[in-house]
Write a structure and sequence with these properties.
With 210 residues, the protein is of the alpha+beta class. The chain contains three helices and eleven strands, in the order βββββββββαββαα.
Length: 210
Amino acid sequence: MQGTVTSFDQESGQGVITAQDGAQLRFEVEDLEYGYKPEAGAAVDFQRVGDEASEIRPVAQNFDVEPYAEPQEFYLITEGDMPEGFEILKKSALELSAEGRLESTAKYKLSLLCKRCGANAALFKKSEPFLRNSIGFSFYMHRVYGVPVVIAKPDPQSALTRTEIARRFDDQKVKRLLERRRASKRGLFWLKNLGLLLVFIFILGYFISR
């Protein structure tokens, strides 16, 4: 489908497209392909899902036929430190985190999470040590944060197009992954509290029965 960008606020990452049939469709920054930042009045191609637009790109450029190649390994990169020749095709609006006894272990786990969502790289945000308390002892852990992205570079010999590479990433998988992790943490919290309650009841019952 084609339409015109009615508005786009780069700060909030939200905008509106007027489709050719006059429908007003909302979109967010993660719906923009290839790092595209539209201005009001820009003609765009997009996919319509209900009253929202996705896979938005400028009409003037035919991204579908451009041959691009993926990296041979997963990259953990920082802003401004992109591997030579590569560019970001898609970037998640969400941030993932992973933990490990070693920072390298946490980074490896973060890469696995990103791969599950179709990303081939992550924008590394930060790493922080923290103290974890266990039964009778404490030990240091590392938590790392990163944003899943898809990167690629022009390659005339590649059999893939940038569109095919970018479409492998699914931001909805990132959202579902975060929701499951939050639900798991809530369940663990209540399980720990239930265990403490049972211990308290046991101790109380012991003293009452004496």
